[in-house]
């Protein structure tokens, strides 16, 4: 299986499992799950040939572990990054390390200083334990700025944190007072 096929399929799955399942007539449950048989059929009506084997390859080789299978092996979902309104993952609250990082671009800083970090179209603000990961995420949008988040202070003030299955930390918002550019 070529890397290109795996990358293309990962992009397609991100689109339908996080954002627009209705674009191919697919429905997700509130936990974001799609039936694998339904997904393969909906993709096929859309002119895309998927197979269980291809989905397994994508799930297992994906460098960011973006997708997972249900325990019964009949369903697939994106583990984070959703914007779809019908999906609301039941995530367990978890205590994060004292510091987390968020990578963004210089052009967003003025607005971030005013409004703090807000989720945009996604359901959460995404934070990482590794500075390097934050750098990679921020670089997608331009000249990178890395923000350090004082999670201890946030916890003390009642903010909640969740961790997706792939290790990405999630929270509803980060007011500017908890942010420091490094
Ligand atoms: C910025 C990738 C202006 C925020 C990554 C970011 C991640 C503001 C952008 C995941 C703002 C949103 C998510 C404010 C936040 N004013 N801009 N007040 N608050 N922003 O893509 O965190 O490859 O929705 O800094 O690895 O960049 O898709 O979020 O630049 O984990 O699996 O608004 O996406 O994963 O952009 O990335 P995004 P993100 P995948």
What does this structure look like?
By secondary structure, the chain is of the alpha+beta class. The protein folds into 2 domains: 3-78, Arc Repressor Mutant, subunit A; 99-181, ADP-ribosylation fold. Helices cover 32% and strands 19% of the residues. The protein has helices at residues 3-19, 36-45, 52-61, 109-115, 131-139, 151-156; strands spanning 34-35, 67-69, 75-78, 99-105, 125-127, 144-150, 162-163, 169-171, 179-181. The strands form 3 sheets. Strands 1-3-2 form a 3-stranded antiparallel sheet. A 3-stranded antiparallel sheet has the order 4-6-9. Helix 1 (3-19) crosses helix 3. The longest helix is centred in the N-terminal third of the chain and has 17 residues, at 3-19. The model has no long low-confidence stretch (mean pLDDT 97). Ligand HQG is lined by residues 64, 66, 81, 104, 108, 111-112, 115, 117-118, 120, 122, 126, 137, 141, 168. Ligand HQG binds next to helix 4.
Give the oligomer, counting copies of the same chain as homo and different chains as hetero: single chain
List bound small molecules.
ligand HQG
Strand order of the largest sheet: 1-3-2
Global outline: elongated
CATH topology name of the largest domain = ADP-ribosylation fold
Radius of gyration, in angstroms, nearest whole number:
18 Å
Q: Which range does the strand content fall in?
A: 15-25%
User: What number of domains?
Assistant: 2
CATH architecture of the largest domain: Alpha-Beta Barrel
Structural class: alpha+beta
Q: How many E-type strands?
A: 9
Biggest sheet character: 3 strands, antiparallel
**Helical region count?**
6
Low-confidence stretches: none
Family: Belongs to the KptA/TPT1 family.
Pfam family, one: PTS_2-RNA
GO molecular function: NAD+ poly-ADP-ribosyltransferase activity; tRNA 2'-phosphotransferase activity
EC number: 2.7.1.-
């Amino acid at each position: 299986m070529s890397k290109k096929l795996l990358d293309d399929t990962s992009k397609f799955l991100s689109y339908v499992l996080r954002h627009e399942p209705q674009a191919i007539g697919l429905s997700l449950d509130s936990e974001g799950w799609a039936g694998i048989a339904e997904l393969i059929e909906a993709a096929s009506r859309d002119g895309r040939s998927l197979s269980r084997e291809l989905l397994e390859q994508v799930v297992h080789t994906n460098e960011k572990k973006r997708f997972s299978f249900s325990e019964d092996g009949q369903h697939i979902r994106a583990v984070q990054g959703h914007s779809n309104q019908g999906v609301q993952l039941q995530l367990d609250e978890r205590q994060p390390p004292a510091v987390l990082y968020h990578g963004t671009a210089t052009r967003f800083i003025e607005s971030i200083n005013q409004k703090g970090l807000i989720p945009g179209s996604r359901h959460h603000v995404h934070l990482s334990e590794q500075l390097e990961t934050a750098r990679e995420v921020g670089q997608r949008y331009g000249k990178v700025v890395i923000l350090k988040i004082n999670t201890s202070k946030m916890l003390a003030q009642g903010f909640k944190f969740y961790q997706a299955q792939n290790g990405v930390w999630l929270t509803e918002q980060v007011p500017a007072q908890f942010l420091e550019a490094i």
